[in-house]
Each structure stands twice: as structure tokens, then as C-alpha cells.
Amino acid sequence: MTHAASTPSNSDAPQHFPVVVVGAGPAGLTVGNILRAASVDCLVLETETREFIEQRPRAGVIEEWAVRGLEKRGLARNLLDRAELHTACEFRFDGERYRFHYGEMTGSHHFVYPQPLLVTDLVREYADVRGGEIRFGVRDVEVHDIDTDRPSVSYTCPETGEQRVVHGDFVAGCDGARGVTRASLPPERVRVARHDYGVGWLALLAEAPPSADCVLFGCHENGFAGQMPRSPEVTRYYLQCPPGDDPENWPHERVWAELQQRLGAAGVPPLTEGRLIEKRVLDMHDYVVEPMVHGRLHLAGDAAHLVAPIAAKGMNLALHDAFLLGDALVAHLTMGDDSGLAGYAEACLRRVWDYQEFSQWLSEVYHGTAAGDPFRAGTTLARLRRLFTSPAAAAAFAERYLGTATRY
């Protein structure tokens, strides 16, 4: 892979778009939709097929401010019609259940809308309604000349096998944690702040209805367990496990036995079990890439920062970046206003670091009781009890859980 070097010569005559977006996830498609709404031409490049990105299982919890941002930009019609609203979560520890009514406390709520449905909405709006150009299945993507006023992106066309080059005024790097945009930068220009939690989560999708009407957090001496409703027929579960564990170590019977134990509480029926249709191990870690802007390349979403699913913040951060970047590019390209681009990285990173800190705090709540350290277990239980005995502690948690504590 080249490091923002010169444009390759063995290509077709290059096209030009004001913005080239690399990656068709929530961040890239939101940026593209914002640009098209302002009649700014752009090109989205995606290595996967349209069918794949519309079915890829990912997050489902969207904070209310993020939904309002989508709604403001005409991108939330299906979401508002179909999403579930959640106003409470439930902690289970010491054999008891504790309902946390953050909706009553704050007047705010979460939306539960699986990411594949949001991506389907966004790609349809971008490509089919707003007339945006998108090329799926591209290979060998590389970025070039980002330190000039004429950056470019090269790729191999999946139909012809030919290398093509697209010039742009800006490149939006929205291609995720393993994408090429961040990887194309020389290491000496990037600082990656990384935190490893030292735990793994077995991520599961079960063909079973949720066993409660809200998110469940089980803080147990065997390890954390979580239930995140996705639909009336499918439920996301998590089980703490050793990092790097093999999913094959978790057959159906073991999975459900641990879920039943870790999420069990007095007076609640057993979980409704079902066939496991996904089973993979996630090693819990975070990173933040600084700077997020390199010449004419602007990183967004997981290309710039990864927050572990501990606090369900990843898609929300991607949307926050996309709102700021899309609006800033429109202001620059249509009005010559550079203030949004100049402040883009700083505004993004304030929310990123707030969410990273909350994820770190919440990790201790989830995992402290299983640390094998009686002192950590005791302080973790004290922290949990405080949520249900101190109005100040409850209000602080609700603000951070909902994302309303961070207003920019």
C-alpha cells in the first residue's frame, strides 16, 4: 500500500468528485447523504457488496440526539416508524434485579434499530433517492496525494479488473477499524492511544425473543452477561470470556447455562432459549487516532476511533463524526466557510474521549465482580448499589448512558 504517494499512471482517465468517501457504513453513507442533499457530487467506494452491508450484524442502540440528527437531515423516516423505544435498563447482581428508569428521570430514551436496517435506509436514500454514486465490491483501494489540493483514490474495478483513479477535493475515510485510509498514513504521522481491558466477550445472536423488555446487565462472579433486544424474534447476548477464546469452546448447552446463571435473579422466569445463529469472540479494547485530519483526508467513525461495545457507543460516535464532517464539507464547498472543517477534529474528539472514559468506568461495573479480587468485587458492588440509592449518582449515570452529558 502506498503512503499518500503519487497517483499511479496505469489507469483510466481519472474522474473528479468534490468528495470521495471510502466506506459505506453509517458514517460514510451519512456523509454522502448530507452532501447529496446540498447538491454536492460525491462518490462512495465500498469493498463489500450491497447485499453484504445491508445484512452485516452490528450494533442496534442509537441515542436520541443521534436520531434527531438523522431526522433533521431527512434520514430517520423508517427508523422513527419501526424502532423500539427503551426508557429503562436492568442490572442483576447479588441474585436480585434492579430496574433503572432513566426515561422517567431524564425525559429521554434510546432507540433500538439494528444497524443493518439503518444502513439499508441510508444506502437506499443515497443511491436510489438522492442520486449519489456508489461503487460496490471495489478492490485494492489506495489513497494518494492527501497533502495536496488534489488528492485521489485508486481502486480495481470488480467487473473489468482494471485499475481506476478518482480525484477529489477531499477524501472522507469512513472504512472502519481495518480499512485502508488510516492504514495508508505513515506511522510517524499518527498517534494511536490504545486501551486493552484484558477480557473477551462472546457475542451471540439467538433466534429467541428477548426475555425482558429492556437491556439486561448481569454482574456475576462468573463474569459479565448482557441481553440487548434486537427484534421480537432475535436477541443479542454477550458473555464475558477469556480474551482470544475459541467460540467452539462454547457449545449451545454451555452458553445457555451461563446466561441463565449470570442473568438469573429472584422472582424472574428463566431466559427463553433458542438456536444460536452467530457466535464470535470480541477482545475488548479501545483506541483513538490523533490527528483525525491529514491534509485533505478526514477520518470518521471506526477509522478514527474504536470504542468497545461495553457502552454501546460506537455507531453513535460514527454518526456524530458524520454530521460534523458532512455539514463542514457542505459549508466549505457551497459557501467557502472553513470554520467547520477547522474545528472538526477537536469537536469529534471531545465526545470520543467522554465516551471512552464512560466505557472504562462501565467496564469496572461489568467486570469487577469477576476479577478474582475481593477488593475490586467489593468496590464494584458499592458502585452498583450507589446507582439505586443516590439520586446524584443515578443522574450522572443516566446522562452518560444516554449521551446527553456531552453537548457540542
TrEMBL record:
Domain FAD-binding: 18-358
InterPro entries: FAD-bd, FAD/NAD-bd_sf, RIFMO-like
SUPFAM superfamilies in the cross-refs: FAD-linked reductases, C-terminal domain, FAD/NAD(P)-binding domain
Flavoprotein is among the record's keywords: yes
A UniProt-annotated Pfam family: FAD_binding_3
Claim: Acyltransferase is one of the keywords in the record: no
Top-level taxon of the source organism: Bacteria
Keywords: FAD, Flavoprotein
Protein name, UniProt field: 4-hydroxybenzoate 3-monooxygenase
Taxonomic source organism: Streptomyces purpurascens
Taxonomic lineage of the native organism: Bacteria, Bacillati, Actinomycetota, Actinomycetes, Kitasatosporales
